[in-house]
Specification:
- Helices cover 38% and strands 21% of the residues.
- Helix 6 packs parallel to helix 10.
- It folds into two domains: 17-172 and 228-319, BirA Bifunctional Protein, domain 2, CATH 3.30.930; 328-418, Anticodon-binding domain (Rossmann fold, 3-Layer(aba) Sandwich).
- By secondary structure, it is α+β, with helices and mostly antiparallel strands.
- It has helices at residues 17-34, 48-55, 60-65, 84-93, 96-99, 138-154, 173-185, 193-201, 212-218, 230-245, 290-293, 308-314, 335-350, 364-373, 384-388, 410-418; strands at residues 38-39, 45-47, 67-71, 75-79, 103-112, 124-133, 161-166, 251-252, 264-271, 280-286, 301-307, 328-332, 355-357, 378-382, 391-396, 401-406.
- The chain starts with 16 loop residues before the first helix and ends with a helix.
- The strands form three sheets. The chain has an eight-stranded mixed sheet with strand order 1-5-6-11-10-9-7-8.
- It binds adenosine-5'-triphosphate (ATP) and magnesium ion (MG).
């Protein structure tokens, strides 16, 4: 019979890759914790309207990438394509904003987008998502970016490119939008079909188009930076000043608009040359009207999302030290010894020590071979004679030295070795 395979674009994460994933998660917990972030877990499924309102009706995500279905014909639901909208929904639903003026939250989990699967692009992928709700002080933007860069640094990824831009605010964006519409309006025939449509619905999205010709036209378009108001300009300069204080290297990218409509002011991306076309590892930015647009009070926010798979692919596999083998292998010979070994093995495991044994009753030689293959640090050899003498042989697998130990002291000895 044929085996059933996973759905296209949905990927298993199997060992030893999972060791790497856990290392990344633990590093995130540690680093984000020191910056005052607490974990939130939100559902994978939300009302479709949350994403339409949050991300924007005319974005690629909402227009063509969402997994949306009618739940028994009653209600339109969507598998979350990103986390920010859900985090804010929870923030409002639990009136977290009433209890504190600054809220820092992070969440790690799967997102779903129906894109064409390829290297670095899946239909279920994972993000590490961090959000700061409350302050609009430029130091908040800098602090978030600093934490991100520090996190990447901790993972040994110092050589990534940070690009930043300011998208302005509700006051200055309309003038820019008008300038773009009139600039692109004169070049409609040169644009791709998608962008011709975007011109009528969401002209800023043309900046995000991956078609070469559109990119070329956009490179000559008016620059947003020339339209932003004094407040936005001051804000952006202060963000840059703070980044310089910590010598965080960055590049200004006036063309970066990001794929979600909710962004205002500071936006940023972390990219790398090593991932080919799928070069964006992190995307983020400020969203000063999103909380209000989702029905809440006027509370500004800023956040980022790290693509977990792309991040993990940049990190070398965990070395032996991290995914090292069990501390002990118990090689038992004969039924009595086997029973004793089974007790001992599981009791030590309950003490938190990784111990392995074999139930197949193989020869000593093949059991020792297995201990070797598993990279056990020690092997305990337990035969009928040893049981009678209440002793066993403890072998150091690295030094090939062995000593006789009394079975009554064994738990203590092994616990000492585990330290
Ligand atoms: P891209 O331009 O590559 O489509 P995006 O702008 O759509 O990225 P965001 O919505 O900003 O991405 O999500 C943040 C990060 O999540 C991206 O930088 C990327 O690392 C990751 N990501 C987004 N879509 C996918 C996907 N389909 N598969 C794997 N990772 C993804
Ligand atoms: Mg995308």
């Amino acid at each position: 019979m044929e085996i059933i395979t996973a759905v296209r674009g949905f990927k298993d994460i199997i060992p030893p890759e999972t060791d790497k994933w856990r290392h990344i998660e633990e590093t995130a917990y540690r680093v984000f914790g020191a910056f005052g972030f607490r974990e939130i877990r939100v559902p994978l499924l939300e009302k479709t309207e949350l994403f339409c309102r949050g991300i924007g009706e005319t974005t690629d995500i909402v227009e063509k990438e969402m997994y949306t279905f009618f739940d028994r014909g009653e209600e339109s639901l969507t598998l979350r394509p990103e986390a920010t909208a859900s985090v804010i929904r929870a923030y409002l639903e639990h009136t977290i904003h009433a209890a504190e003026t600054v809220t820092r939250l992070f969440t790690i989990g799967p997102m779903f987008r129906r894109e064409r699967p390829q290297k670095g692009r899946y239909r279920q992928f994972h993000q590490i998502d961090a959000e700061i709700l409350g302050p609009d002080d430029p130091r908040t933007d800098a602090e978030l970016i600093l934490m991100l860069i520090h996190f990447l640094d901790k993972l040994g990824l110092a050589k990534l490119n940070l690009e930043i831009n300011s998208l302005g605010c509700a006051k200055c964006r309309p003038a820019f939008r008008e300038a773009i519409v009139s600039f692109l309006g004169g070049r409609v025939e040169e644009l791709c079909g998608d962008c011709q449509r975007r011109l009528g619905t969401n002209p800023l999205r043309v900046f995000d188009c991956k078609v070469d010709k559109c990119g070329e036209i956009i490179s000559r378009a008016p620059r947003l930076m020339d339209f932003i108001c004094q407040d936005c300009r001051d804000h952006f300069e202060k963000v840059q000043g703070c980044l310089s204080l910590f010598e965080v290297p960055y590049r200004l990218n006036a063309k970066m608009v990001r794929g979600l409509d909710y962004y205002t002011r500071t936006t940023f991306e972390v990219t790398t040359e090593f991932l080919g076309a799928q070069n964006a590892v992190v995307g983020g930015g400020r969203y000063d009207h999103l909380v209000r647009d989702l029905g809440g009070p006027d509370i500004p926010g800023i956040g980022f999302a790290i693509g977990f798979e792309r991040l993990a692919s940049l990190i070398p596999d965990r070395d032996q030290d991290v995914s090292r083998g069990p501390l002990l292998f118990i090689a038992a010979l004969g039924e009595k010894a086997g029973e004793r070994a089974f007790m001992l093995c599981n009791r030590l495991r309950m003490k938190g020590i990784h111990v392995e044994m074999d139930y197949a009753g193989r020869s000593l030689k093949s059991q020792m071979k297995r201990a070797d293959r598993l990279k056990c640090a020690y092997a305990l050899i337990l035969g009928e004679r040893e049981i009678e003498e209440n002793s066993a042989l403890l072998r150091n697998m690295h030094e090939s030295a062995q000593e006789e130990v009394c079975l009554d002291d064994l738990e203590e000895i092994i616990k000492k070795l585990a330290r």
